[in-house]
Amino acid sequence: MSYMNKTLVEIHNDLVSGKVTSKELIDEALYKAHKYQKDYNSFVTIIDDAKEVEITDNILSGIHCGIKDNYSTKGVLSTGSSNTLKDYVPFFDATAYENLKKAGAVMIGKTVMDEFGMGGTGTTAHTGIVRNPWDKTRMTAGSSAGSASAVAMGIVPYATGTDTGDSIRKPAAYCGIVGYKPTYGMISRYGVFPFASSLDHLGVLTRCVEDAAIVVDNMKGIDKNDMTSWDSSNINLYNELSKDVKGKKLCYIKEICNIENYPNADEELKLHLENFKKTLNICKTLGIEVEEVSVDEKLLNAVNPVYNVISCAEATSNMSNLTGITFGPRSQGNNYIELMKNFRTKNFSSLIKRRFIIGSYVLQAENKDKYFYNAQRVRRLLVDRWKEIFESFDGIILPVCVGPARKLDDPLKFDKPTKVLFEHLNIGDFGGFPSITIPNGFVSKLPVGVNITCNCYNDQKLLNIAYALQEAMEYKNQIAREVQ
Q: pTM value?
């Protein structure tokens, strides 16, 4: 009997009652992980000797999970899905993973990601493409691609992720699951490979909102090793979950949701926006007030370039230590400069090298004010506009992407008709806002998602709204079609 269509609480109760053992759960997960690995490529490492643990009062005890491959895991290969770290085995655990282990979680594998998190497609890992379990000709999005696919296939009930632009929330939408990144600093980033430090968030992918609350409750906490972490000990997300959201106020952004702004819209985008309208109507039946607001389209169109400039600049700095001397396989060269050049040229993908070039360029003294500082200024304008909205509304609700997952052989089109809708999730990282994606239907028989974002530290409010909306729809605990 499969337990993967159950919630974490249901699985925990069955463990406590003896209906299933931790070993049986692990064995089932390992069987599925190997069965689907060739077709979907969810894992960099599958831990065949994963051991059962004692069942305690903690809901996570004895239940298996996936850990994204940019989390340091002591004694277990941690590559960031990059050739530069293909043999790297850390000697310590990331704080977030250490917290999960203390709760009794059992890691059964390290999940594939876009190389160092720098990608939104799930196609740039050194182990190959991660394919969507609803349709293997489609992408999962990224960078938390393996985590999303493993959860959607029912291999694990949850997996960790990181989100610098949309890397938890977009894969969740494409795979028909829940993706939650809490307020910046609620979960320590210590021991997780940095991409862009001012944007990096840790979070989780699950198949229902209550599971996301449980996992983050066990991951979060202040950490002396991460000065951006904060004390959330008085917050208990799962225990405070409530479907009573009557009187809450949500808004959506006219410029993003109006089909008239997309003269070249395809049928999938039209259906996606129609589906979003239905979701807004469900919100109203729950007693949530929903209104339309307007945001300057010039500001919205600046989101993508602002993200590219800031993230590339910070990535260039953060990854300057990947030289082939301290980390990674040693390259050849007549001197240390040649050695580093050969290592970085040979082992980084073209996408990573392109981002490093952009980052180095915008940080040059003669370019810094024009590009990097201006990007920071526009980031502030965007964050201030969102905070202004939060003064009148409890949250912002928007559709995710321009429809369902794209075909792997269909190049991304960042032309004007799709650009605005594609990039609004980045603002959640610009401001450190808590943000969650939940499934809200199907387009072309593929899952689509809706995103809710609230002001900083309003994680409970965010989860309660998402929880109430989830319970009013029919997409909880979905298992992907191709593996049912």
A: 0.96
